[in-house]
Sequence to fold (415 residues):
Amino acid sequence: MGLRNFIDDKVAPHFHEGGKFEKYYTFYEMFDTMLYSPDTVTKASAHVRDGIDLKRVMMTVWFCAWPALLFGIYNTGYQANLQISEFGFQAIPGWRTDIVAALTGFDQTSFIANFIHGAVYYVPIVLTVYIGGFIWEGLFAWKRGHEVNEGFFVTGILFSLILPPAIPLWQVFLGISFGVVVGKEVFGGTGKNFLNPALVGRAFLYFAYPAQMSGDAIWTAADNFSGATPLGMAAAGGLDYAAGLTGVAGTSAGVDLTWMQTALGGIQGCIGETSTLAIAIGAVGLLLTRIASWRIMAGVFGGMVAMSLLFNVIGSDTNAMFAMPWYWHLTIGGFAFGMVFMATDPVSASMTNTGKFVFGALIGVMTVLIRVINPAFPEGIMLAILFGNLCAPLIDYFVTRANIRRRLRRTGGLA
Fold:
């Protein structure tokens, strides 16, 4: 209560009408609502028809992403320390190397050493994301004369988790700027965007800087080291699916891969996408609080399983991806993260119950289609979700029209 009273009595009057900093009220309100609930309810979309406000919904998603975040930090450091310790590579020169060397000595057997090394790379990324995002959010809110929406808390953390660990910070700033401005603010802000802003930023970076976003050298924060992700290995025919769930299916970055390992984590990939188990913990939280739609998740999963089984039956002598079982699609690449945190975005997804199943199934089918058929793009969940976002209004339109026709038939209003 002391901090709340201090803000209300000593700080707020200077930013309210008549205060000497009145024109900067938007920026004051932005940081005030980071600490406390807003005084007013949402007057425009996105609407929350519940006993909690929009901020609490966003914060719940934010907290549910933490299992994937914490494991991602650890795994980033583990992958780097493993390669440095076993193969003698030098860490990327600079202040990060000095910090890690002084605190940990690149010891891959130490949990603390791995976590510190990962944090040295992740913290600058997430700080760049939030600084860049809040600059644009604040400027647009200031220009339009309204308060800063809480939606960026979720966009920021999700965007930081779908980036490779060794991405240059200037690209991080460009990506989040494009995602916020072009993916959301030009359409009016949170609740009015029809595409997922985090994925818009990620797609911009992928197509603008493909070498830095998809090359083998960006997944591990170690100099002179290059190692393919499990999904990249699968596309090149380097995984043995006959090995079962615990047998060695391939070797990546000096680590023997099993399906169980891809489910638990400890593999190369984007920061928050490597542990399906950590993502599943977040999914449980989202489903128990009813913030994420189980219909969308079920649709994505079902569409993926159906399409992968179809390709398994068809088979191919030249394309190894045809043989990938559905449970490998689930645990490698960004499928699990996209299904839980990206596809369920309530603003850009379908709104009707039936439409959510169709929307999810479309994403699941498209993900496998892109992974298997497109040789230049082994990952498919990002483009599949963006395609689903474009189709969501049309899906809801046809579902609504079908419901109207059924009601008219029941009431005799339609022959």
User: Anything to note?
Assistant: The radius of gyration is 23 Å.
